[in-house]
Amino acid sequence: MQRQDVRNIAIIAHVDHGKTTLVDCLLHQSGTIAAHKKVQERAMDRLDLERERGITILSKNTAVRWKDVTINIVDTPGHSDFGGEVERVLGMVDCVLLVVDAFEGPMPQTRFVLRKALGHGLRPMVVINKVDRPDARPDEVLDQVFDLFVSLDADDAQLDFPVIYASARDGWACVEVDGPRHDMNPLLDAIVERVPPPTIAEGPLQMQVATIGYDDFVGRIAVGRIRRGEVRKGQLIVCLDITGKPRRAKVSRLNGYEGLQQVEIEVGRAGDIVGIAGVTDALPGETLCDVEAPEGLPPIAVDEPTIAMEFIANDGPFSGRDGKWVTSRKLRERLERELQSNVALRVEDTEKPEVMRVSGRGELHLGILIETMRREGYEVMVSMPRVIVHETPEGKDEPYEDVTVDCQETFSGSVIQDLTQRGGELLELRQTEDQVRMEFKVPSRGLIGYRSRFLTQTRGTGTLYKSFSGYGPFKGNFQRRANGVLVALETGQVTSYALETLQERGVLFVEPGDSVYAGQVVGENARPQDMVVNPCKAKKLDNMRQAFKDVDTRLATVRRFALEEALEYINADELVEVTPKAVRIRKRTLDHSERRKQEKQAAAE
User: Fold this and answer.
1) Which residues pair with 127 in a beta bridge?
2) Distance spanning both ends of the chain, measured CA to CA
C-alpha cells in the first residue's frame, strides 16, 4: 500500500550550488511561507558553525505543501566526514534531489552522498541550477552527471532520471533548457509526479530513530520516519536498543514539520517524518515500537573511521586561564556524551589514563567536534591526525580521497608535482581559458598538511575539494613538513626587540605582547631543523645617550592558525593546545633538555 499525500526526498548539493536558495524558493512559491516573509540567509543551517563555514553538519528537515501533498525535504551533509549523518538520513526518504551548478558540474562531495543514495536503491532527480549564468553549460553538465551515475553503478531505473533546469535566485524552473521561465511549479509538479510515494507496511507502530533533536521545554526529541502503524501524543511505546533490550516510555509531545518550523500534531502515520519527545535516552539506530508488538529494525550501517588522534586534558603552563572544563574526567564525560549522537565517532582508552584515542571520518569531522568543545568552555590538547591502516592478507591498505583542484594554468605544474610526490595519481585534466580542473586520487595521509601549502602554491586563488573514495594499497612513506620550527626557551611576554632578530630566522606565529611558555612553537624555521629561541628577550637599558635615535621596529605579518590549519601543520612530536580563546602549537615535551635527551635516545635506537 502507498500513501499518495506524502513525498519524502533528500537534497544533495555541493557548497554554493544553490541548495538553500532553492529550498527558500520552494517554501515561498508553494505558499508554505507567506510571500512577504523573509527567511534568514542559509535558513536550513541552524548551527553557528554551519553558517560560518558554509557546510551542513547535521541533517535538517523541512516540509512544503503542494496540491494537497506534503513534501518532506531532508537536508543532507555534503561532506564525507559526516557520513554517519548521511547513512541515517537516506533511510528516511524515497528519492534524492541532486542540485548541480550549470557551470561547475558535479563535485567530489556530491559524489560521496550520491554513491550512498544509489547503493540504498533510491531514485534520483537532477536539478541543474544557475542556468542563467553567462558561462552556463547545461548540456555538458548533464553528460557529466550521467557519466557519474554510470561510474557509481546506477541501475537502468536510476539512470532514467528526470532533469529540471532552474535558476533558484530568479525563482524559476523548466523541463527544457529553453522552456518557459515563470516559476517553480515545474519542479514541484515533477516531485509529486516522479518521486515514489512511501510504501506502507501493515502492522503496529515501528519507527527507527534517525537523528536526535533537542527542545528547551521537552528535552531530547527522537526524529525518524514511521515505517508502519501510527503514534499519538500520550501513547505508551517501547524503545528497543540495537541489542533488542526494551524500555518503556510515554510520548509527551509529537512534532511534525511545516516549512522550517516544528509544529505539534496529535497523530503521526506511516510515511510521516516526525519528532517524538518522551523517550529521554533515545539513541540513533534504536527502534520505537508498539507496546504489544516490540519488533526491532536492523541497525543502521555506518562507515568505519578513517583517521584518529589523541585527546589529552590540557596540562600546559596556561591551563585553566580560559576554559571552564580542564580535567581529564570532564573531557571523558564530554566525549562519552558525544558518542550518543555522533554515530561515526569512536573513543578508546590508551595505556595512559589521561589520553584518549578518538577516531572519526576525517580531519573536518574531528575538527568540528574540537571547535564545538572549545566554544562550550573546554580546554584540550590534540595530537597529529593519523590515518587508520587496515592489515590484509595482501599487505597494508590505507584510505584514499577523490580530489578536485581548480587553479590557474600557471600553477598546475607545481600542484601536480606535489600531489604526485604525496602518493597521488592524476586521473583527468580539463582546461577552460586560463583555468585548469584536475581530478586526482590521493592517499588521505598525503593530504594531511597539504591545504596550506596548496594555498601558498596558488597564491590563494586555487580551490581544493576532497571526498573519501575507499581503501587502497599503502603508498609508503613521504615527507609531511620540510621546515623545522622555532621553539620558545622560556615563559614570558613576547617583545618586539626579540622578534626583530627572530623574523630573519623564518615565519613568526606570535606578535609583541603575546604570552608564551617554554616549549611553545612560536614560528617556522627557514631550515629543516628545530631551533630553540627566546622571543621574550628584552632590550637592555642604560643611561648613555645613543648616537642615533631608536628606529621603529618593522615586523613582518605573523601567521595565525585556524584550528584545522594547526592540526594539518603539526608533526608527531607536537600537540595543538585548544582553549576557548587560543589555538597554540607546542612540543609534547616542553623542557628543552629533556627533549634533547629523547632525541638522542631515538637516534641511538
Assistant:
1) 99, 164
2) 70
Q: Distance between CA atoms of 197 and 186, rounded to whole angstroms?
A: 18
pLDDT profile of the chain (605 residues), mean per 10: 88 76 83 58 49 50 88 72 64 90 82 83 93 90 92 91 92 89 91 91 89 78 91 93 88 88 90 90 87 86 84 92 90 88 84 91 85 92 93 89 89 92 91 85 87 82 83 84 90 92 91 94 93 89 52 75 87 93 94 88 78
- Backbone φ and ψ for 172, nearest 5 degrees, come out as -140, 160
CA neighbor of 257 nearest in space, from 216, 213, 217, 209: 213
Q: Is residue 228 helix, strand or coil?
A: strand
Select from 324, 403, 371, 279 the least CA-distant residue to 562. 371
Residue with cell 587560543: 582
Contact of 579 with 523, CB cutoff 8 Å? no
Residues with Cβ < 8 Å from 40, sequence gap 6 or more?
Answer: none
Q: Which CATH superfamily is domain 6-194 in?
A: P-loop containing nucleotide triphosphate hydrolases (3.40.50.300)
What does the domain layout of the chain look like in residue ranges?
6-194, 206-290, 390-473
pTM of the model: 0.74
Residue 543 is classified by DSSP as S
Q: Which residue in 171, 150, 173 sits closest to 161, CA to CA?
A: 150
